[in-house]
């Protein structure tokens, strides 16, 4: 078979058109898509039957040379076997002539691809998640689709109808005379057509070879960095420093109230049950259709928003920079999973990929670990940490303060200027060479005091800015690498700045000691509170019990001894807490004196 070769100046694109087939047209479309599913199930059963047979024969001790031979699952072998079986198999012999041969070829091609992916995945030749053995497609869960590659496929004159093999002429939902004009001018050639049932409607997707008329971007020398998010769908900044944002419409959140109402209606109806074989009632089918319409409307609104955004960006800028987001990992956050899925980050990147290619623009994908939000767009210094709740970026090195999304977009635009030379960029000078793993200073370093004294390990004593007392700061020395060069990465046992104010620092050896002291002081406070509560309860009970005796109305109660013991226990517990707190205070005083 001759391999398809794309003509110079043409591109492969797809046109998706809605159909209005009518009752008879819908019946024929359902028959063709059902034939594709039946052929797929036949191929799966035909191939896997030999697998189970060989397994049974091996369990009987039959030798390898006497086992049932393997069956080839290539498309050619499946076609040949199906053409021989369709005349005698009772599942196909009575009705296979009603449909086009392309319907059966669709199912066989899908089955061949499924077995090929499974074999390559099992042998390690296929990347991605492991593929399982192809399974049968059920009538309810299978996607109704059929692909036509041969025969008469054309859009009729006037652009109101389309003709497909064995299906005849079907009316289009929209008027498309522009496609007819392109075909007559020789700038469009239809290669295949795929009909599919989506959102309770029939669609046809035409794969065509077309000479695109889209011109270059309006600003070919300008780069734009796009930072995707939930608060705003996209915040983008160009290489000139201009920032803008695309608001997040949140279509799913707007439809949640209606979805809850329709879902409650569905749950009250008698639905299908695979365990018992129970079929869905007509009321359940009607309620489920109403619920699906809400989902379909949300999907259409989301697709319209994303298409308008990506088309505008691809038509405006010559270089587009996006981030390689780990969307699957982001969806593990149960608090933001629904908003992240509604934003469709992956779809935005997919559309930008082919739309920039159609206009001859560049699409740069920043590395997944590029710290766009933590890096200052003014001086290039990166923060060690920037929690997601901090929405304003404040640089401690140069004093720049701006929104964190605007800062990320400016960094992405500057990344395009450094990598491709497109645009002027906003950051002057050469790009920073420090790795993101380095802990950058959080404030401008102060000059060393003239009377600073040195401690052990090269530690220089400096006054603390908060309390005015002396603190120790570790001076990191270069660590020789295995290649003989020196690196500025800190060693494993290096310590960050230790503050005398008790601030929490990473890699501080005394951190465990401080934590133990804090736990001891907290234990003393708890003992004092517990003793006070026990003493108060005993005193109240004693007062209530002794009051009648003092008034002369009742004799001295015998259980006063128990209340006295309860008060004594309270005194002991409170005293233990006081002693422990006093001891901890003396220990801290001795430690402070030794540090001075």
Q: Main sheet?
A: 7 strands, antiparallel
Biggest sheet, spatial arrangement of strands: 2-6-7-1-5-4-3
| Beta fraction | 15-25%
Distance between the termini: 88 Å
Please provide the count of β strands.
18
Low-confidence stretches: 421-516
Q: Please, could you describe this protein's structure?
A:
The protein is α+β, with helices and mostly antiparallel strands. It folds into four domains: 11-210, no CATH class; 219-420, no CATH class; 446-509, no CATH class; 514-595. It contains 13 helices and 18 strands. The strands form five sheets. The chain has a seven-stranded antiparallel sheet. A hairpin with a 4-residue loop joins strand 9 (232-238) and strand 10. Mean pLDDT is 80; it is low at 421-516.
Topology:
Elements: E1 11-20, H1 22-59, H2 75-85, H3 101-123, E2 145-148, E3 154-155, E4 161-164, E5 168-172, H4 177-184, E6 188-198, E7 201-210, E8 219-228, E9 232-238, E10 243-247, H5 251-254, H6 256-267, H7 282-316, E11 317-323, H8 327-330, H9 337-343, H10 345-358, E12 362-366, E13 392-394, E14 401-403, H11 404-420, E15 459-463, E16 470-474, E17 479-480, E18 486-487, H12 511-551, H13 560-595
Helix pairs in contact: 1-3, 6-7, 7-10, 12-13
A few lines on this structure:
By secondary structure, this protein is an alpha+beta fold.
Features:
596 residues; alpha+beta; five-stranded mixed beta sheet; 13 helices
């Amino acid at each position: 078979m001759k391999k398809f070769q794309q003509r110079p100046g043409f591109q492969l694109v797809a046109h998706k058109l809605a159909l209005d087939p009518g009752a008879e047209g819908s019946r024929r479309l359902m028959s063709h898509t059902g034939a594709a599913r039946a052929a797929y199930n036949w191929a799966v059963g035909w191939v896997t039957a030999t697998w189970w047979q060989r397994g049974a024969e091996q369990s009987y001790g039959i030798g390898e040379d006497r086992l049932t031979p393997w069956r080839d699952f290539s498309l050619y072998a499946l076609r040949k076997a199906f053409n021989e079986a369709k005349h005698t198999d009772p599942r196909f012999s009575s009705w296979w002539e009603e449909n086009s041969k392309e319907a059966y070829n669709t199912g066989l091609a899908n089955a061949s691809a499924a077995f090929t992916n499974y074999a390559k995945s099992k042998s390690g030749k296929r990347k991605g998640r492991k593929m399982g053995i192809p399974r049968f497609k059920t009538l309810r869960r299978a996607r109704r689709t059929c692909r036509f590659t041969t025969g008469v496929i054309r859009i009729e004159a006037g652009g109101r109808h389309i003709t497909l093999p064995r299906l005849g002429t079907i009316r289009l939902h929209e008027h498309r005379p522009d496609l007819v004009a392109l075909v007559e001018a020789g700038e469009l050639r239809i290669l295949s057509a795929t009909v599919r049932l989506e959102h309770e409607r029939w669609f046809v997707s035409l794969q065509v070879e077309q000479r695109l008329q889209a011109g270059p971007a309006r600003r070919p020398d300008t780069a734009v960095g796009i930072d995707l998010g939930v608060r705003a769908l996209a915040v983008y900044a160009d290489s000139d420093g201009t920032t803008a944002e695309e608001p997040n419409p949140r279509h799913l959140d707007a439809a949640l109230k209606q979805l809850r109402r329709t879902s409650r209606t569905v749950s009250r109806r008698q639905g299908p049950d695979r365990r018992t074989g129970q079929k869905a009632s007509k009321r359940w089918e009607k309620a489920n259709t109403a619920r699906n319409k809400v989902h379909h409307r949300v999907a259409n609104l989301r697709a319209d928003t994303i298409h308008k955004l990506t088309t505008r960006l691809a038509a405006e800028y010559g270089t587009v920079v996006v981030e390689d987001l780990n969307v699957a990992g982001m969806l593990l956050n149960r608090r933001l999973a629904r908003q992240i899925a509604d934003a469709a980050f992956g779809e935005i990147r997919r559309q930008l990929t082919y739309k920039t290619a159609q206009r001859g623009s560049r699409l740069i994908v920043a590395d997944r670990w590029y710290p766009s939000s933590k890096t200052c767009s003014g001086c290039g210094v990166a923060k060690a940490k920037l929690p997601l709740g901090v929405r304003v970026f404040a640089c401690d090195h140069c004093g720049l303060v701006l929104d964190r999304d605007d800062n990320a977009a400016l960094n992405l635009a500057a990344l395009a200027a450094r990598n491709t030379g497109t645009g002027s960029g906003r950051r002057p000078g050469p790009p920073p060479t420090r790795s993101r793993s380095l802990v950058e200073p959080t404030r401008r370093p102060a000059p060393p005091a003239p009377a600073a004294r040195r401690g052990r390990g090269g530690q220089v004593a400096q006054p603390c800015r908060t309390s005015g007392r002396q603190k120790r700061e570790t001076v990191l020395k270069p660590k020789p690498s295995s290649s003989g060069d020196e690196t500025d990465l800190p060693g494993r046992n290096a310590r960050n700045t230790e503050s005398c104010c008790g601030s929490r620092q990473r890699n501080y050896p005394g951190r465990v000691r401080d934590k133990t002291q804090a736990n001891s002081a907290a234990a003393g406070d708890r003992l004092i509170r517990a003793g006070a509560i026990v003493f108060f309860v005993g005193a109240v009970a004693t007062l209530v019990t002794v009051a009648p005796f003092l008034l002369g109305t009742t004799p001295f109660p015998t259980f006063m001894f128990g209340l006295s013991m309860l008060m004594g226990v309270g005194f002991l517990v409170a005293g233990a807490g006081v002693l422990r707190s006093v001891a901890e205070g003396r220990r801290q005083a001795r430690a402070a004196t030794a540090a001075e």
